[in-house]
Amino acid sequence: MNDVVQNLPWQIQVSLASGYAAYLIAYMGIRFAHTSIDTLFISLAFGLLTTGAMWVMRAIDPIYSVPAAFLFTIAIAILWRAFARGWFHSALYALNVTWSNDDPSALATISANSKHPISQIGVQLDDGTWLTCQHADRFRDAPFPPMTLGPGGDIALYLTHEELPGQPETELTTVRDDKWGDRLTYIPAARIKRITIRHER
After folding, report:
1. Which of 69, 106, 156, 195 is placed for a possible disulfide with 54 were both Cys, Cβ 3.0 to 4.6 Å?
2. Which of 68, 94, 120 is the last residue before a domain boundary?
């Protein structure tokens, strides 16, 4: 397979590499349910943009046609993920075409939403304990997002409050430390019974 790719014309290699890089960016965090066919054809779709950009740029400046086409494709992928994908889904909802999408789960759709930042996360364990991150906006400058969702349903969050069954909620004041940094709490999927998430409007 590597020999086949290496023997392709350099223009096709650039298009394939650019298309795949754009695919990784455009579907980051929601691609774990994609099949190899999904990956291939989405990458090819982005690669067509690279091919078109190289064709236009070669007439203007052949030296910079490759990096310009690559950056153009990456920019399109970012715009697709940040804006166009949501607009496309909204249009389908408004036209009553479908209320579904191709995300692997409803939780993936919610957690991957970049338009409305997460403000509060609550996780109930199988023993009834509630683990929450309140005022998640306070952790926007932290090394990781306020909530990181794994493909298997596991979660890592900055645990600010804990409520054991039959006991009042307690605040954990050592989550942020000037010397040691911010403390993440990892929760395996097998322990999770319920997840609640609030988003800013």
Report:
1. 69
2. 94
